[in-house]
Amino acid sequence: MEFQFSPYMLPLIGAAILSGWIAVYVWARRSTRSAPALVLLALAIMIWSAGYALEIAGANLTTKLFWGKFQYIGIATAPLFWFIFAYNHTSRNRRMSHVSMLLAAVVPAITLVLVFTTEFHGLVWQEIGLKTTDTVAVLHVTHGLWFWIHSLYSYVLLLGGKYFIARSIEHMWRPYRGQAIALLVAVAAPWIGNVIYLAGLSPALDPTPFAFTISVIALTWGIFGFQLIDLTPVARGMVVEEMKEGMLVLDRQGRIADMNPAAERLLALTAAQAIGQPITEVLRAWPQVLDRFSGILETVDEITVGSGDAQRWYEVRISPLKDRRQRVAGRVITVRNITERKQVEERLLQERNLLRTVIDNVPDQIFVRDRDSRFILSNLSDARAMGVADPETLTGKTDYDFYPPDQAAQFQADNLAVIQSGQPLINREERVGADDHDPRWVLTTKVPLRDRQGDTIGLVGIARDVTERKQTEEFRQSFLNDIKALQQLHLTLSEIDDLETLYIKMIDLSQQRLGLDRVALFLLDRTTNELQGTYGVAPDGQVRDERYYREPITPDHWTLDILNAPDHVLLWENAPLYDNAAVVGTGWKVAATLWNGHAAVGYLVCDNFLTHKPARPYEAELISLLGSTFGHLVESKRADEQIRQLSRAVEASPTSIVITDTRGSIQYVNPKFTEVTGYTFQEALGKNPNILKSGLTPREIHQHMWEMIQAGLEWHGEFCNRKKNGEIYWEWASISPITDAAGHITHYVAVKEDITERKRAQEELALARDQALAASRYKTELMAKVSHELRTPLGAIMGYAEFLHKEMFAPLTAQQKHFTGEILDSTSYLNGLVNDLLDEAQMERGKIQIQPALFDLRQMVGQLTVALKPAAQAKGLEFSLSVTPELPINLFGDQKRIRQILTNLISNAIKFTAAGSVTAHIQRPDPRHWSIQVTDTGPGMSPEVQARIFEAFWQADGSPTRQHKGYGLGLSIVKQLTDLMGGEISVQSEVDRGSTFRVVLPLTELAEKQE
Amino acid sequence: MATPLVLIVEDDAKLSEIFSLTLQAAGYQTERVMDGAVALTRLAEIVPDLVVLDLHLPNVAGPDILQHIRADARLAKIRVLLVTADERLAETLDDHASLTLLKPISPEQLSALAARLLTEGVQR
User: Fold this and answer.
1) B9: helix, coil or strand?
2) What is the C-alpha separation between A141 and A130, in angstroms, rounded?
3) 3-state SS assignment for residue A381
4) Sign of the C-alpha dihedral, residues B103, B106, B108, B111?
5) For the segment A929-981, what is each residue's pLDDT rounded down to a tens digit?
6) Distance from C-alpha of A93 to C-alpha of A324, rounded to nearest angstrom
7) In this structure, are residues A421 and A415 in contact, taking their beta carbons and an 8 Å threshold?
8) By three-state DSSP, how is residue A542 classified?
């Protein structure tokens, strides 16, 4: 490269240096939004100026051409950076976007490319040559198409930049006007230079770089003079323009000097209309403002305009405006719309009230205490809890002013602990108040109250009255305890088997476990319908024996009220309390039936005589439950007792008892079973009763037995069984099914008796009986035979003897006569004996049958008189046999047997009577009977003898040497015949006073018979 | 009235003699038969007023003779006095006999009853 010197270089180098300095200066203060673009602009101008200087200095075309191209780096970019600077500098809050900047950089970039390649296409420069002027040679070019495009584009950018700057000047606050002028100069300079260049007025040099240098200088002046970079030039203006407060500037005469758009909107006037007008005119609509602020230089106040929703609040601030010599040049009035703030304040106030209302109406106590636990704030609930109406009056008080000292001390300690530790106290249950009978409970939470710095300055507390919950909880607990106690009581009592102990324990445990006071138990005796006392608590609190008490339950008995009470319980409040029917106090009383599930077995009654405790809310239900528990227990224990008795009976039973299940497996045998069979309970258990089978009982019997019992029937019968030791025995068994409540057979029970001995005895008896029967039969037959065979010779003896005795054929000597008489007497006796023996034999065989028929009683009596009189006369006895006329002629009866009765009775009487009479009467003691009465004057009989005279073969003296003839069968036969005829025989006799036999027979008259 | 005729049918000779002597003493005409068959033969020839009839007889038994008497109209008026030691057999014939006497029979009793039968006209 070759260079030459030219004086034109100097201003260019100066411009380049200046531009470079500006770039450094601005870079150092680049925090401003527009600074980077200004730095770049300054650098572009520096390159342009330096390049231009070097182009001029170039000594040949090549050198000049290189620098000519180089300076285009500045030429092409300077307008772009200018435009960006102007935009960023003047536009508020915004920077040009990167996309926009890239787009704007497209043309300069093409320009640069085309410049460096212009030799090939000539789009920028067409002809390139040196033009030598007087002193220097300069590069001379003709411009191609792109040069003009570039130029046009550059002008557009310059123009745009100017527009932004110029527009911003309008909004500039007065003090910044100088800055605006500097900017305008900076804008204008390139234009002028360019115009000169393009118009060819330039003396060989392009003035544009100089013009830009001037621009840069102007900008620099702006920087120095008006802090172009440091302070946003438009900011103040913008602030005023944009601020929400209306601002009016008044001159000394009170005329509007300036006003901002907010003021325009406020007053509904444009600045153009208002400026120059007196304030009194402008504010005619706001007379109160004028009145209040006329002549005031400096003040701050609030005013309201309108009402209701349209009401607005304004803050009016008036400040004096002074000139440099501190003279008042006018006033600045700012009017701020504070409606919103006011509304917020109003809302806050409302919220405060709302909060207070809420706090006061919360049922919980809410309170705030200071560091010393003194009241600061309380809500109404808290005030009420302290016993005051107005929460304000609490301020400054302490817990000691309201609570008993011990409680207050506790609260104070808690509060201070919270404040000192900073730890909250959460949900503490506390008892408050002095009333022991009506304790109040609160649930308290206390949290520390801190200031902004986090230091504890007191506490906030909430206390909730949980008395009701507490009472509910206590109720629940007491209820649970009572239910548990009842359960335990039931378990304990269940283990008691002895009924008397049970009754005592029932009372004892009711007192101990359920807290009952006086308790008494009464039972019902259903068999006698009586009330039966057991045990009860006396007024002195001691359990006493009341078993002596028994009382019938009459239909109007007061007990029936209890026994028939709905739900089995009755409760009396404020009732007279009794002891042994005497009133001993007043209180509540509960009576509940001892309910066994089906019926009342008694009742229990309890009261509060001893303790005066109030009744539990569920007292009646509890005691009803207790009654039911007792009832079931009593029932169950009685049943147990009964079962034990039955069990003992079964155990001690003299008969074997075997219980099997339905399959025949033995479940139980009693000791007698073991005794009989030899099998122990253990051995028999689970076995089948067929272990006893001997094989001697016919199979059919077992089959029949099973059929019967499986059909639900009872079976009776005999088994021939085998004992464990092999011995055979007989038993009589009664086997029956046991059914459950549903009627299903669950078991079989066999009750068995060892009848081996009895059976043997029976067999022996049967044998004996058979033998006896055979003997009897033989005897009877023998008797019949004998008597028959005896009669014939007897007849002969009697006949011949009588011939002799009656001296029919020859007279007898007295002695002979006596002998024949004896023969006849003996024959007669023998004949009677034969007859009686025969009768007795027939009686024994039951052969005698009564064959009733109609007969003439009087005819029979006539025959008998003929037959019997001789014997009486022979003994010198008076004899009569009479029939009452009350009896009909014909009687219905067995004539032969009646005759036999008469004959026997009369013969007997004659036989036993030594002297006196024998009198027989046939009478009719009543219409349905007739009687035979035979009275003698014989020796009579003792009662012992009377008791035996109707036995066979028995005679009164019972001695072997008989004083009286007789065979002991007569009366026996009479008695048996009388019985057969449905009659009765009796005897009336005393020793030495004779005897009277009386036979009463039923009377059947002919007339009746004929019917 | 002619002397009444009494036919005594009795196989025991002693009793037969006693009955005969007793009744003769009482003034009756008597005829004695010791055999049942003979009795029937005699009854075909004569009609006695009274028959004293024993029940146990050889060849033809007493009840058959009684039945024979009661079945024959010619013999219908005959009174029959049964004399027997067999009470049971006598009872079965009670209805057909005029009177039954159980052995042993006293002569006094026999004469008294025979007299009643023949004079009082005890008739079946």
Assistant:
1) strand
2) 8
3) helix
4) positive
5) 889 999 998 888 888 777 777 775 555 444 333 344 444 567 878 888 888 88
6) 33
7) no
8) coil
Q: How confident is the model at residue A229 (pLDDT cuts 50, 70, 90)?
A: very low
Residues 62 to 101 of B: which have CB under 8 A from any A CB? 85-88, 91
Q: How many CA atoms lie within 13 A of A894 on its CB side?
A: 16
What is the complex's ipTM, to 2 decimals? 0.78
Rounded Cα distance, A53 and A7, in Å: 10
A785 lies within 8 A of chain B by CB: no
Task: Return the structure tokens found at A172.
Answer: 């500039």
Residue A608 pLDDT: 92
Specify whether the CB–CB gap between A603 and A592 falls below 8 A: yes
Q: What does the block give as tokens for A739?
A: 């059914």
Helical pair B36-45 and B62-71, crossing angle rounded to 10 deg: 20
Q: Among A835, A838, A866, whose Cβ lies nearest the Cβ of B112?
A: A866
Name beta bridge partners: A533. A522
A831 reaches B (C-beta below 8 A): yes
The count of other CB atoms within 10 Å of the CB of residue A480 is 10
Check residues A289 and A887 and name the one with the higher pLDDT: A887
Contact A802 B15 (CB under 8 A): no
B103 and chain A: CB distance < 8 Å anywhere? yes
pTM of the model: 0.39
Contact A798 B12 (CB under 8 A): no
% chain B with pLDDT above 70: 90
Q: How confident is residue A308, by pLDDT bands cut at 50, 70 and 90?
A: confident
**Does residue A365 contact residue A381 with C-beta atoms inside 8 Å?**
yes
| CA dist., res. A862 & res. A752, Å (int) | 66
Are B50 and B99 within 8 A, CB to CB?
Answer: no
Cis check: omega of the bond before A439, within 30 degrees of 0: no
Comparing alpha-carbon positions, the chain A residue that sits nearest to B86 is: A788
Provide the number of CB pairs (under 8 Å) joining chain A to chain B: 64
- Give the DSSP letter of residue A616: P
